[in-house]
Amino acid sequence: MMSHDPHAITTHEALQAHYTPPRELVMKKVADRIDPHTAGFIAASPFCLLATFGARGPHCTPRGDAPGFIDVLDETTLALPDRRGNNRIDALRDIIDNPAVALLFLVPGAGETLRVAGTGRLTADPALRERYTMQGQVPATVLLVEVREVFMQCQRAILRARLWGERERPRAAPSMGELLAAHTGGLVDAGKYDAESAPLVSKVLY
Fold it and tell me: At the top level of CATH, which class does the domain 21-167 belong to?
């Protein structure tokens, strides 16, 4: 059915024709490392989605634990212990085929999400695995992600979904203004953004 769609969009040019160009801020908010504010958001996150693409196609798998379960080893390296699951290990097989990975971090109560892209590698380093022991269980492997791209996604999707209801944002999670200020090298005034721009998002959800 889709192959006969006369309205199918098959080129970048045709796609762009349906959208206005992104604002300068949107293009400049991308960072290539984990700054202290980003590390704070990751530390407040108990859940993320891991996207991979291997020989058998794409997979998107959930990862969750106590806030901060993904460890910031340094400004360009994240460590993700592989907790007990069903042992399909689809995402891990993908990473052996193709190291490109993407992570989407969520913080309950926070509308924004954090997007991280980079390359992954798996390790069975005994010392590193032992570091992430929980309830006497040592993870079988640890995924190390070399960060290439970091940026915040605005809160529209979370607001439209009403995902968190009335749940309050954790105090430990940096604000969108703080994160944008850090990622754009000061292009954004954090206090002004949080006071003026952030509230406007809820008025332009559609």
Answer: mainly beta
pLDDT beneath 50: ranges in the chain: none
Nearest to 28 by CA among 184, 182, 152, 149: 184
Inter-residue long-range contacts of 196-202, CB under 8 Å, 24+ positions, other chains counted: 198/155, 201/111, 201/154, 201/155, 201/156, 201/159, 202/159
Nearest to 77 by CA among 129, 142, 33, 123: 33
The secondary structure of the chain in percent helix, strand, coil, rounded to multiples of 5, reads: 30, 30, 40
Residue for token pair 């996604």: 153
**3-class DSSP state of 155:** coil
* CATH 2.30.110.10 placement within the chain: 21-167
pTM here is: 0.89
